[in-house]
Write a structure and sequence with these properties.
The structure holds two protein chains of two kinds.
Chain A lengths: L3 H20 L3 E2 L5 E2 L12 E2 L2 E3 L4 H9 L4 E9 L11 E10 L3 H18 L11 E4 L2 E4 L5 E4 H9 L3 H7 L2 H9 L9 E7 L15 E9 L2 E8 L4 H15 L10 H7 L5 E7 H8 L17
Parallel strand pairs in A: 1-5, 9-10
Antiparallel strand pairs in A: 2-4, 3-4, 5-6, 6-13, 7-8, 10-11, 11-12, 12-13
Helix pairs in contact in A: 1-3, 2-8, 4-6, 7-8
Chain B lengths: L1 E2 L8 E4 L2 E11 L7 E8 L5 E7 L3 E2 L4 E12 L2 E5 L6 E5 H4 L11 E7 L2 E6 L3 E9 L13 E5 L4 E4 L8 E5 L4 E6 L2
Antiparallel strand pairs in B: 1-6, 2-3, 3-4, 4-5, 7-8, 7-10, 8-9, 10-11, 12-13, 12-15, 13-14, 15-16
The chains are: A alpha+beta, B mainly beta.
């Protein structure tokens, strides 16, 4: 729950984000929250709504707007994911998502550095930022001056867990090792982009040209918190269809229908090279406002309703 | 049945036929990854603790736990006998099962006995109990040199710090959760 002062800071951050993107020639879009078919992602459980679903992210509709000819778009919207609750999770949460045609995932990494820097400059006296400009969250002191660290998933598994990525995938331990052995170290002194995920963990991301076993996907970590997930978009409808099929057959349905988003697949070929990213707005507020729990930075949590 | 998404601090679940209580809980989910429910649990019979990570598909049985109000009758050797005052049924728990509860348990005291199925596994004392002071140094009136508490022993053999005016034969109220003195009781 936020105090009036906290609500003011959250508002300041929202306005600063909008200014940042509008100045860079993006347009703001607001796409439907309630959809008849979702992107098949086995680890996300949607809420159903009168024969439809509440979206788990705005990705599907935003990419269709790219196909319609928009080249730079951003959206700040609520997303819904069933059974997610904890210090860093709420079932309903606010997402900032944006797309930039002609870019790849490395371009987005630079823009993340620029965005966070701009927010800290424009919103003075943020409780999570020290007088010397460091982000202080829990026991981390994070220097935000670019360039931030770039670390591949393979390097991180070797450095912090002493395990090979493929070995972890085969044993079904990838997520657990990432959460328990690796994430706590990420972004403690400066933010880190963890990048080049195994191909099967980036079902909407483009296959890397350098290494066909990985997808051009990254996650931004600050103070051990996973803040944003970006990638070079996969825009080949045939390959996307195969990846969706595999997602459905190998990972289960998670309560969703087996229907594929056919209109989305049809639009995909019109998009061209594009990079897109989703950033957890509530987590960003949590970090910049120095709050240890996500429930402290939203106007209400469910239990208060 | 419980599923992993029901897990939270304080939840009681059954694993391999034994009751456990969740003492710590943390939900995590890496981006695009699976939900992980990291828990620390204590066996409610043996007290043994362990940590375990569960996933969405994991399921748990509900333990058959019931609390019944019973009266403490007497101790014989290692066994402490209690009676259900409405059914007159008698059961006992061992000294080891009772642990620190023995610091405050006296004859005829009413307690909540926790049963796992037919098996008594634990008791909950009243929050406040009145016990008699059996050993105390006399109070020297006007003595301002000493500290503002002194140690005494109560009828169960338990020792605690009390204000200097408490004397042998007094009854005092004690908080059983912390083992601390609350007040002197006039009878």
């Amino acid at each position: 729950m936020l105090t009036p002062e906290g609500l003011r800071r959250r508002s300041d951050l929202l306005q600063a984000i909008r200014s940042f993107f509008l100045e860079r020639d993006y347009i703001e879009v607001d796409t439907p929250l309630r959809l008849p078919v979702l992107i098949p992602e086995s680890n996300l459980v949607p809420f159903s709504s009168e024969g439809c679903f509440l979206h788990t992210s705005p990705e599907l509709c935003m990419k269709r707007l790219l196909a319609r000819g928009c080249s730079r778009i951003f959206q700040i919207c609520h997303c819904f994911r069933k059974e997610e609750r904890g210090r860093l999770h709420q079932s309903e949460f606010t997402m900032l998502e944006w797309y930039h045609q002609g870019w790849d995932y490395f371009d987005l990494m630079y823009q993340c550095e620029e965005l966070i820097g701009a927010l800290v400059r424009r919103c003075p006296d943020l409780p999570g930022i020290s007088s010397s400009g460091q982000l202080c969250w829990r026991d981390s002191r994070v220097a935000l001056t670019p360039p931030w660290e770039r670390l591949t998933v393979a390097e991180a598994f070797g450095r912090y867990a002493g395990v090979e990525v493929n070995e972890a995938l085969r044993a079904g331990d990838f997520d657990e090792i990432l959460v328990t052995a690796i994430e706590p170290h990420l972004g403690r002194n400066r933010p880190v982009f963890l990048y080049d995920y195994p191909l099967e963990l980036g079902s909407l991301a483009r296959r890397s040209q350098q290494n066909s076993a990985v997808a051009e996907r990254f996650e931004l970590y600050i103070a051990g918190v996973e803040l944003a997930n970006g990638f070079s978009e996969l825009v080949d409808p045939q390959e996307q269809r195969q990846r969706f099929q595999r997602e459905i057959t190998t990972l289960g349905l998670g309560g969703k229908t087996a229907a594929l988003p056919e209109k989305f697949l049809a639009d995909l070929s019109l998009i061209g090279e594009t990079a897109g990213i989703a950033l957890g707005m509530d987590r960003l507020c949590m970090l910049l406002m120095g709050c240890p729990d996500i429930s402290q930075v939203t106007p209400f949590i469910f239990e208060e309703l | 049945m419980y599923t992993a998404s029901d897990l939270r601090k304080g939840l009681k679940i059954q694993i391999d036929g034994e009751p456990y209580i969740v003492t710590e809980f943390d939900f995590s989910k890496p981006g695009k990854g699976q939900a992980l429910y990291r828990t620390k649990m204590r066996n409610m019979i043996t007290g043994v603790q362990f940590t375990q990570t569960y996933r969405s598909n994991d399921k748990f049985e509900r333990p058959n736990l019931e609390e019944r109000k019973m009266q403490f009758l007497y101790a014989q050797d290692n066994d402490y006998h209690f009676m259900d005052t409405s059914s007159y049924e008698q059961i006992f728990l061992t000294k080891e099962q009772l642990g620190d509860n023995l610091n405050f348990l006296i004859d005829n005291m009413e307690v909540e006995v926790l049963f796992f199925g037919d098996r008594p596994i634990d008791i909950t004392l009243p929050t406040f109990v009145n016990l008699e002071v059996t050993v105390a140094d006399p109070w020297a009136k006007g003595d301002t040199s000493g500290s503002d508490t002194k140690p005494v022993t109560v009828q169960t053999g338990f020792q605690l710090q009390v204000p200097p005016f408490v004397e042998q034969g007094d009854k005092i109220q004690i908080d059983t959760r912390t083992g601390t003195y609350i007040t002197r009781v006039k009878e």
